[in-house]
Amino acid sequence: MRRLLCAMLATLLLPAAMPGHAQADTSAQLSPPQGDPGRGRLVFAPCRTCHFTQAEAGHGNGPNLHRIFGKVAGKQPGFEYYSAPLQEAQFVWTPALLYAWLENPMAAIPGTSMMSAGVPDPAQRADLIAYLQQVSVRTAAESVTP
Ligand code: HEC
């Protein structure tokens, strides 16, 4: 499963290099294991150094993560530190793709400007995704705890 997700991520990132492969099909439907948003909030703590989840907070050292799922990777206006691979990426962030990437961000997207070791533990990663799904779709008025 893990290898499959990484292979799909590679396929999505290198569409031209794999002409025979169908893209962006199954990955969008695959879901990571169900996690716990409460625990995920703690897993997200190191990410908070660089990322805000509230829209009005804008970008930090990393791009804003408000409503990140459904956005095309590497294209948020106003964020100037996207790496070439993300600038050129043509995939939409889904929970499954983020789950795959965060296992080892620098290995999965060589050249990424995100200096993070990610979250190697699968259960913690699932918790993190659950947290991001919850918090990144709340409106500003609703977000009491950032
Ligand atoms: C040291 C700062 C830093 C930390 C820590 C960090 N990130 Fe990032 N993040 C970045 C940068 C810079 C980018 C842009 C990467 C690129 O263009 O290659 C990024 C990109 C992203 C993106 C893609 C956004 C987009 O618009 O496509 C997501 C999602 C993300 N980070 C999630 C996380 C999560 C979850 C964590 C915690 C496990 C984390 N990041 C930790 C700096 C950071």
Structure, explained:
The radius of gyration is 15 Å and the shape is globular. The chain is 36% helix and 0% strand. Helix 1 packs across helix 5 and helix 3 packs across helix 7. It has seven helices and no strands. It has a single domain, classed as Cytochrome Bc1 Complex, Chain D, domain 2. By secondary structure, the chain is mainly α. The protein binds heme C. Heme C binds next to loops.
Which terms summarize this structure?
146 residues; binds heme C; 7 helices; globular; mainly alpha; Cytochrome Bc1 Complex, Chain D, domain 2
- Any idea what the radius of gyration is? 15 Å
Report the CATH architecture: Orthogonal Bundle
Taking pLDDT < 50 over at least 5 consecutive residues as the criterion, the unreliable ranges are 15-28
Average pLDDT figure: 84
Order of helices and strands: HHHHHHH
Range of strand content: under 5%
Number of strands: 0
Class in CATH?
Answer: Mainly Alpha
| Separation, N- and C-terminal Cα atoms | 32 Å
Number of domains: 1
Summarize the structure.
The protein is mostly helical and 146 residues long. The protein has seven helices and no strands.
SSE arrangement:
Elements lengths: L1 H12 L12 H4 L7 H7 L40 H5 L6 H7 L3 H4 L13 H14 L11
Helix pairs in contact: 1-5, 3-7
The chain binds heme C.
Heme C (HEC) binds next to loops.
